[in-house]
Specification:
There is one protein chain. About 60% of the residues lie in helices and about 20% in strands. It is of the alpha+beta class. It folds into 3 domains: about 80 residues, no CATH class; about 100 residues, Band 7 domain (Tetrahydropterin Synthase, Chain A, 2-Layer Sandwich), CATH 3.30.479.30; about 50 residues. The strands form 3 sheets. Strands 3-2-5 form a 3-stranded antiparallel sheet. Helix 5 packs antiparallel against helix 7. It is elongated, with a radius of gyration of 55 Å.
Length: about 300
């Protein structure tokens, strides 16, 4: 029973101690330079006494004894291991001061990509490749984009980006820090007073355009109205010119029959009398001769007031 318990205890202890011991052994081997692990998109540069001993750029497990020989035993103690990141990096330079051809102070934002292309040149040819690249991009942007026309600055960003990249790329290659894409992201005015003046001009221009559109619309409406009035006047004039002819022809046809002609004119006379404000006095037939003096006296008398 005791032997079974001791065996189980030893298995449990071995289960927990084996990973710890394995880690200790692998750590000691790595410390004494037996092997090194290179991650994806990284490079290891080993330097001993100011000289490059080995450069590991392939990802995976590398046996340093096969690459360096006996130097691998002390490379991690008295040497230096530089681990460089080869992944694509990017940076944005904000509001670089540039003057246009018209003298306007313009701010330009430059976004660019870069990556390590030559690890040895990156380490030993320049103490600050990233800062030097940023300074060169800034200087190239200011030098190549100054004195451009304001309209070109606001419209030709792709051309400006290619100009900056073509000027900076040869210098960055010397330091092992290769320049990737360059893009002018933002072009803006740096003077607040100028921005306000431009805003006022834009507002005034919009008002002028709005007024011009309204005036043009009013002119179009007036033109259409006058054209319609002219056409209507022409048609009415034609109708008035044809009216006497039509009436004359009708009267000529009516005059061919005396009874119809007499009845028509009597009817027209009655209509005019009814339409006027004159007073009518109806007398029986044959009584007009005896009542004529009486009617003449009534016409001279003033009518009594109505109460």
């Amino acid at each position: 029973m005791n032997s079974t318990t001791g065996y189980a205890a030893s298995v449990v202890i071995g289960f927990f101690l084996t990973p710890i011991a394995l880690r200790i052994v692998l750590g000691l081997m790595r410390m004494f330079g037996f092997y090194a692990v290179v991650q994806e998109r990284t490079t290891r540069v080993y330097v001993l006494f100011g000289k490059v001993v080995a450069t590991l750029d392939e990802p995976g497990l590398h046996l340093l004894w096969l690459r360096m020989g006996p130097k691998a035993l002390v490379i991690n103690w008295i040497g230096t291991c530089h681990v460089l990141d080869l992944r694509l990096d990017q940076q944005y330079l904000r509001s670089l001061a540039v003057n246009s051809e018209e003298g306007a102070p313009i701010g330009i934002g430059v976004w660019y990509e870069m990556y390590v292309s030559d690890p040895l040149a990156f380490l030993f040819r320049n103490t600050d490749p990233r800062g030097s690249l940023a300074a060169n991009v800034s200087n190239a942007a200011v030098r190549s984009l100054s004195n451009m026309k304001l309209g070109d600055m606001l419209e030709t960003r792709h051309t400006m980006s290619r100009t900056v990249r073509a000027e900076v790329s040869p210098r960055s290659d010397e330091w092992g820090y290769k320049l990737g894409s360059v893009y002018i992201r933002k072009v803006h005015f740096r003077d607040i007073q100028m921005i306000r003046q431009i805003e006022e001009k834009v507002v005034n221009r919009l008002r002028q355009v709005t007024s011009a559109i309204k005036q043009d619309g009013a002119n179009q409406v007036s033109f259409i109205t006058s054209s319609a009035d002219r056409e209507a006047a022409v048609e009415f004039a034609k109708a008035q010119a044809l009216r006497p002819q039509i009436v004359g022809e009708a009267l000529h046809n009516i005059a061919a029959d005396p009874e119809i002609s007499r009845a028509l004119f009597d009817l027209l006379e009655i209509q005019r009398l009814l339409a006027s404000d004159a007073e009518l006095t109806l007398l029986p037939e044959g009584a007009a001769a005896g009542l004529t003096p009486f009617l003449a006296g009534m016409s001279r008398a003033t009518p009594p007031p109505i109460r």
